[in-house]
Amino acid sequence: QAHLGESGGGLVQAGGSLRLSCAASGRNFSEYNMGWFRQAPGKEREFVGAISRRSKGTYYADSVKGRFAISRDNAKNSVYLQMNELKPEDTAVYYCAADGLGNTARAMSQGRVPRPDEYDYWGQGTQVTVSS
Length: 132
Prior knowledge:
single chain; seven-stranded mixed sheet; 1 helix; 11 strands
Protein backbone atom coordinates (compact mmCIF):
# COMPACT_ATOMS: atom_id res chain seq x y z
CA GLN A 1 0.00 0.00 0.00
CA ALA A 2 1.26 3.46 -0.86
CA HIS A 3 0.63 6.69 1.01
CA LEU A 4 1.09 9.86 -1.00
CA GLY A 5 1.52 13.48 0.02
CA GLU A 6 1.76 16.51 -2.25
CA SER A 7 3.48 19.81 -1.55
CA GLY A 8 4.58 22.92 -3.41
CA GLY A 9 1.27 24.49 -4.30
CA GLY A 10 0.56 28.17 -3.88
CA LEU A 11 -0.40 31.44 -5.53
CA VAL A 12 1.48 32.53 -8.63
CA GLN A 13 0.96 35.12 -11.35
CA ALA A 14 0.17 34.10 -14.88
CA GLY A 15 3.34 33.23 -16.74
CA GLY A 16 5.05 32.06 -13.58
CA SER A 17 6.24 28.64 -12.49
CA LEU A 18 5.68 26.20 -9.66
CA ARG A 19 7.14 22.81 -8.86
CA LEU A 20 4.94 20.30 -7.11
CA SER A 21 6.36 17.36 -5.21
CA CYS A 22 4.73 14.12 -4.20
CA ALA A 23 6.37 11.96 -1.58
CA ALA A 24 5.38 8.32 -1.23
CA SER A 25 5.72 6.06 1.74
CA GLY A 26 5.50 2.30 1.68
CA ARG A 27 7.42 -0.24 -0.28
CA ASN A 28 8.03 -0.71 -3.97
CA PHE A 29 7.50 2.86 -5.16
CA SER A 30 9.39 2.00 -8.34
CA GLU A 31 6.68 -0.53 -9.23
CA TYR A 32 4.06 2.18 -9.68
CA ASN A 33 3.33 4.35 -12.65
CA MET A 34 2.71 7.80 -11.20
CA GLY A 35 0.17 10.31 -12.40
CA TRP A 36 -0.87 13.87 -11.74
CA PHE A 37 -4.50 14.97 -11.91
CA ARG A 38 -6.21 18.23 -11.12
CA GLN A 39 -9.69 19.33 -10.18
CA ALA A 40 -11.05 22.83 -10.50
CA PRO A 41 -14.19 23.95 -8.63
CA GLY A 42 -17.30 22.55 -10.24
CA LYS A 43 -15.35 20.40 -12.66
CA GLU A 44 -14.42 16.74 -12.84
CA ARG A 45 -10.97 15.54 -11.94
CA GLU A 46 -8.82 15.55 -15.07
CA PHE A 47 -5.59 13.93 -16.14
CA VAL A 48 -2.54 16.18 -16.28
CA GLY A 49 0.30 13.77 -16.93
CA ALA A 50 2.00 10.55 -15.94
CA ILE A 51 5.38 8.91 -15.80
CA SER A 52 6.24 5.24 -16.12
CA ARG A 53 7.96 3.16 -13.45
CA ARG A 54 11.50 3.68 -14.70
CA SER A 55 10.91 7.12 -16.26
CA LYS A 56 11.10 5.67 -19.77
CA GLY A 57 7.78 7.21 -20.73
CA THR A 58 5.96 10.42 -19.92
CA TYR A 59 2.48 11.37 -21.04
CA TYR A 60 0.70 14.71 -20.92
CA ALA A 61 -2.72 16.16 -21.48
CA ASP A 62 -2.85 18.38 -24.54
CA SER A 63 -3.67 21.37 -22.35
CA VAL A 64 -0.31 21.21 -20.55
CA LYS A 65 1.96 19.71 -23.19
CA GLY A 66 5.08 21.81 -23.65
CA ARG A 67 4.52 23.70 -20.39
CA PHE A 68 4.54 20.98 -17.73
CA ALA A 69 7.13 18.28 -17.11
CA ILE A 70 6.98 15.22 -14.87
CA SER A 71 9.99 13.55 -13.33
CA ARG A 72 10.60 11.05 -10.57
CA ASP A 73 13.36 9.96 -8.25
CA ASN A 74 12.80 6.37 -7.19
CA ALA A 75 15.63 6.57 -4.65
CA LYS A 76 13.68 9.32 -2.88
CA ASN A 77 10.23 7.80 -3.44
CA SER A 78 9.19 11.05 -5.07
CA VAL A 79 7.57 12.35 -8.21
CA TYR A 80 7.57 15.96 -9.37
CA LEU A 81 5.49 18.21 -11.59
CA GLN A 82 7.29 21.24 -12.98
CA MET A 83 4.74 23.75 -14.20
CA ASN A 84 5.86 26.64 -16.39
CA GLU A 85 3.99 29.37 -18.25
CA LEU A 86 1.09 28.99 -15.87
CA LYS A 87 -2.31 30.25 -16.92
CA PRO A 88 -5.38 31.17 -14.83
CA GLU A 89 -7.11 28.08 -16.23
CA ASP A 90 -4.46 25.93 -14.53
CA THR A 91 -5.99 26.91 -11.18
CA ALA A 92 -7.06 23.71 -9.41
CA VAL A 93 -6.26 21.28 -6.66
CA TYR A 94 -3.49 19.03 -7.93
CA TYR A 95 -3.28 15.38 -6.92
CA CYS A 96 -0.65 12.76 -7.40
CA ALA A 97 -1.75 9.17 -7.82
CA ALA A 98 -0.20 5.72 -8.12
CA ASP A 99 -1.07 3.03 -10.64
CA GLY A 100 0.18 -0.42 -9.73
CA LEU A 101 -1.61 -2.36 -12.46
CA GLY A 102 -0.23 -0.87 -15.66
CA ASN A 103 -3.42 1.01 -16.46
CA THR A 104 -1.50 4.12 -17.49
CA ALA A 105 0.36 2.48 -20.35
CA ARG A 106 -2.75 0.54 -21.33
CA ALA A 107 -4.76 3.72 -21.59
CA MET A 108 -2.15 5.48 -23.67
CA SER A 109 -1.87 2.47 -26.00
CA GLN A 110 -5.63 2.75 -26.51
CA GLY A 111 -5.23 6.38 -27.54
CA ARG A 112 -6.90 7.87 -24.49
CA VAL A 113 -5.82 9.49 -21.27
CA PRO A 114 -6.06 7.46 -18.06
CA ARG A 115 -9.15 7.82 -15.92
CA PRO A 116 -8.99 8.62 -12.20
CA ASP A 117 -10.50 5.23 -11.34
CA GLU A 118 -7.49 3.55 -12.97
CA TYR A 119 -5.26 4.76 -10.13
CA ASP A 120 -5.07 2.91 -6.84
CA TYR A 121 -3.72 5.46 -4.37
CA TRP A 122 -4.13 9.21 -4.03
CA GLY A 123 -2.64 12.08 -2.13
CA GLN A 124 -4.71 14.72 -0.37
CA GLY A 125 -4.02 17.37 -3.01
CA THR A 126 -2.34 20.76 -3.07
CA GLN A 127 -3.96 24.01 -4.22
CA VAL A 128 -2.51 25.90 -7.16
CA THR A 129 -3.93 29.33 -7.89
CA VAL A 130 -2.83 31.35 -10.90
CA SER A 131 -3.80 35.00 -10.92
CA SER A 132 -4.26 36.98 -14.11
